[in-house]
Amino acid sequence: MSTLLQQLTGQYNTIDIQFSHLDKPWLIFLIGVLLVGALILSWLSLRRLSSHGRKILIFSLRVLAAMSLFLLFLSPTLQLQERTKEKGELAVLVDNSLSMFVKGIAEDKTRLSKYKEYFNIYLELWNELNEDFRLSYFTFSDHLKSELANPLAKEIVPALDRTDFIKILTGLQDKFKDSPLRGLILVTEGAGQEDLSSLKSLIERFPVPIYSFGLGKLDTYKDLQISDVLADEFGFVNHPYIIKAKIKTSGFKGEKISVHLKESEQIIMAKNLLVDKEKGEYTLEFELRPEKTGEFSYIISIPAYPQETDLENNQRNFTTQIVKDKTRVLLLCGSPTWDYRFLRRTIKQNPNMELIAFTILRTPFNVIDVPQEELSLIRFPADQLFTTELKNFDLIIFDNFNFQPYFPINYLENIRKAVMEDGKGFAMIGGELSFLGGGYANTPIEEILPVQLDRKEGNFEPGEFPMRLTDEGKRHPITLLGEDAQQTESLWAQLPPLFGFNLLLKGKPTAQVLGINPFRKNQFGPRVMLAVQSVGRGRSLALALDSSWMWNFLMVQKTGDNSLYHRFWQQAIRWLIKSPDLRLIRLSSDLKKYPLGEKVKITIKTFHEDYSPASNPELKLKLRTPGNKIFVPREVIPSKIPGLSELELALPELGAYTLEAEYMKGEKTEGKDAITLEAIEARPDLQDIESNWDLLRLMAEKTGGKYTDISIERGKPNMPLNKEGIFKIVNQKDFPLHRSLVPYLIIVTLLAFEWAIRKWSGLP
Amino acid sequence: MFTRREFCKALIIALGFAGISTISANKASAFGDRNHFHFAQLKYKGGNWNPYRTGPEELLKKLKRETSVEPALKRVYLESTDKNLFLYPFLFVTGREEFDPWPEEGVLQLRKYLNYGGFMLVDDAGTQEGHGFDKSFRREVQRIFPNQQLKKLSKDHVVYQTFYLVRSVGGKKMVKPYLEGIDVGDLTPLIYSQNDLGGAWEKDNLGKWVYQVQPGGELQRDWAFRLGINIFMYAVTVNYKKDQIHIPFIMQRKGA
């Protein structure tokens, strides 16, 4: 038929007819029902006709006319098509990642060359496949690269990227979405794939069979690999820090392997591993107990063993941050108050803080008529706290606490030393028993406080007032409650006013005054409400009020939100204990690991003591290399943003580097920071060279293909494939019949005949 | 010599100043001692919201004498919708009879109050389980905490050891030998006594106890005061006595 048509038309070999309105079946049904109804009525109207033959004839003509009308309603279009048959596509993928160029033990043959040897035996395979399919050749690692010729028949260059089957199979489907892909020939050892679970679900949906090939016993190599290191990003001082090293072995059965943990190229711990399998995976655990805080860089490594295929994967670097354990806060409260209640809850709710609190529930002036055994009160352990235990606290808070009835003044000297010499934090919260009222004038406590006490005007004054921030307060990390100074000021303005405050003379010259009482002044200006200072190695804070709890409870009433109160106190405590994130110099890099040769960008932020940005800082920089050499980077470039500088570094060798920065003001060190960076091998594929035949087997099984172990099955590869091509329409001409006169003429003719016979039969 | 008119003028002015300074002083002292312990009591419609004239003040005097707490010795009266409610984190609720439902706005405010740091001591002066004040109060607790029920406080609840080691729970009567409460997290911001604590604390103008305490007599009255002090201490110090440092001492004294 098609040949005839082609001969007649000279071009087209297929006829097709298309109809419209097929997307509206309800309409077609309706028209059909109407026509059938009309035909029934029409048949009934022919009852009078005695001649059965004429009845049939008239009715038949009517039926034909109705059918023609119905067909016309469907707007038929006659299509003449020129169609060609095309072959199906077959993709040949050859893995050219570095792991395919690994050589076996005591031989010069790579994995790829072993595959080539196998396929070269069956060169006619490709010709046979060419007859039924259009072959497309690709090399791949983490992307597909089209090749003009069969990669198995020529030299190919190794790719440095890691194999990624997910990207490859997805890319392949995209490439052939408009073409009939019939199958995939996959030449790879299956190594290096991460995220196997996503790959498995992709394989299950892959639409064509995969024919995969494995080297099996032909794949011989000896290798020891540190495949992974599991260690927390953070550890705590004086707490066990566990490092788990995962080791993959191949070809070392029966041997004892030494595994080292190093810090700056020094071996700090070594463990032995007895390999009991031909191919295996093992986990070794190392336990450290760090004694210092800071960022530390470690290496897990295995020495090179003879005949090892790859030595690059014998070590892994990692860094960790060792931080202080929980912040230990000592809170002494002279009398149970709401301020104590809300502050205690705030500190207790922070899992990073451990609170030791003592509240004086009974003073020497209280009278109780019951025996001691009926009270839950304990003796205030002042001796213990301010001698042997003091060193264990990071922060001491006196909250409305008068020390005089409870311990001698020389314990205050211990606190002063703890702050100035040991770097502890001290805070005094106001109330009638604080500052002058607590007897702290002319004591070591007054020496470390950021304020001078007012000996003339008295201690505590009632009255309602709001605390307003100074300019320093708008940017200090303690009082910075918003994103910037403006938002901070706006948030503070929302806080409710407070009641009652301690009369302080003024802030000390070395202090920052953060909050003031705008309604009360003395000769030095508005009364100081909140002041801080660095004193010796430590820090101190004075808050001259005892009703900060209102910033919590009254804000709940006003807005339902007490987070500003919590944030204020958390920030105050973090500043007092010199939390690392509040340093005056902070280093950061865009990445932690850099491929060898890539430039490293370091950002340096510096602040003045009041946390305003410090531009053009004086910096001392030191870069420590993996070989423990010291270099001094010099090219710090100030940025347009105040307080920000930038530095670019080159890391010339593999391994971990530490960049240390010291921020100087004259002779004084304002702050220090350090950052660890790592230069890694720019050959991620060689980090995992172990073949994965199971994966290749799975790919074949799930897609209806076949896996061939070429070390066992040496015959010609058997690949049953769907050879069916597809037809493509190359040319087409349409004839819309509903636009032609012919169907209308046919209908009119039929109806005319019907009329004529009806009249001849004597019917109206 | 002053004329009568001038004298009256001067007197009025003097009285005016005196009044202003008194008000200012009151305001100053009221505001200035904001961190002191204020005993706020809830006013509500219906029932009898203030059955005792002196009881709570007697407790406050004892609190001042025996502990380091500095209470204000006069009560403050507030309604549940009062905008000053949150200035007083301690709220006392008592009564004898059934009362009208609290306004919805007040219920919402009390819920926020108790969830975010406020404390409520409730004392049934009617001592009629299931009737009167008890019936109405349980209804209101359901509105404030729709997903919770009043629960018996366990014997080792910290309220029994915040100051005294309380071994007996009673008031003017011993309707229930335990306290009930509602927990929010690890705290109990609402504590309910059905034993009429206020009745045990109440004195007349001559300083004599108004009511006999049954069945335990004066010893039971003593426990009622101790319990009252403990409850106040709990409101301010919360779980302080559950801190590790106190536990060995408390266990030892309890004879554990």
UniProtKB/TrEMBL annotation, chain A:
<dbReference type="Pfam" id="PF07090">
    <property type="entry name" value="GATase1_like"/>
</dbReference>
<dbReference type="InterPro" id="IPR036465">
    <property type="entry name" value="vWFA_dom_sf"/>
</dbReference>
<feature type="domain" description="Putative glutamine amidotransferase">
    <location>
        <begin position="410"/>
        <end position="577"/>
    </location>
</feature>
<keyword id="KW-0472">Membrane</keyword>
<dbReference type="InterPro" id="IPR029062">
    <property type="entry name" value="Class_I_gatase-like"/>
</dbReference>
<keyword id="KW-1133">Transmembrane helix</keyword>
<keyword id="KW-0812">Transmembrane</keyword>
<dbReference type="InterPro" id="IPR010768">
    <property type="entry name" value="GATase1-like"/>
</dbReference>
<feature type="transmembrane region" description="Helical">
    <location>
        <begin position="26"/>
        <end position="44"/>
    </location>
</feature>
<protein>
    <recommendedName>
        <fullName>Putative glutamine amidotransferase domain-containing protein</fullName>
    </recommendedName>
</protein>
<feature type="transmembrane region" description="Helical">
    <location>
        <begin position="56"/>
        <end position="74"/>
    </location>
</feature>
TrEMBL record, chain B:
<dbReference type="Pfam" id="PF13709">
    <property type="entry name" value="DUF4159"/>
</dbReference>
<feature type="domain" description="DUF4159">
    <location>
        <begin position="38"/>
        <end position="235"/>
    </location>
</feature>
<protein>
    <submittedName>
        <fullName>DUF4159 domain-containing protein</fullName>
    </submittedName>
</protein>
<dbReference type="InterPro" id="IPR025297">
    <property type="entry name" value="DUF4159"/>
</dbReference>
